[in-house]
Design a protein that fits this description.
single chain; 136 residues; alpha+beta
Length: 136
């Protein structure tokens, strides 16, 4: 069972069940979330803090990035379980199976106080633990 929650949006409009018992708690409004003073957004799966979006990237705010990554995780974990990261054009990219979940940018690394590869290792480990918890 998977439950994704937005730490700053605890109110849900419903729970969507996908094949295999996948549960998603959707925030009531992704347009006007309450975020921390620094603007960061935390992605949590099955009570496991997976990653914190602290900076905008690719024209997307931390909250928008959270929503995109959340959607990709939901789609990928429906079919795949293996989580890994690879360097693509010099940047770490996290995958679930063959599906790209996200690219870790230099700005992400700086904002989190780690190198990009160390952050990729941390976030991939957290995501792997969360995905594994879904299949127990």
């Amino acid at each position: 069972m998977l439950k994704l929650t937005h730490r700053f949006l605890p109110v849900c409009i419903g729970v969507l069940t996908l094949g295999g018992g996948l549960l998603l708690a959707r925030p009531a409004s992704a347009d006007t979330p309450n975020v921390t003073a620094d603007g960061s957004t935390l992605l949590t799966i099955n009570s496991i803090d997976v990653m914190r979006f602290r900076v905008s990237s690719g024209g997307y705010t931390p909250v928008q990035r959270w929503a995109i990554v959340e959607d990709r995780i939901i789609r990928a974990t429906h079919e795949f379980q293996n989580v890994e990261w690879k360097l693509v054009d010099g940047e770490p990219v996290i995958y679930i199976g063959p599906r790209q979940i996200m690219t870790i940018t230099a700005a992400d690394a700086t904002a989190n106080g780690e190198s990009a590869t160390d952050l990729a290792t941390t976030w991939t480990g957290n995501l792997r633990q969360a995905v594994d918890s879904m299949h127990r």
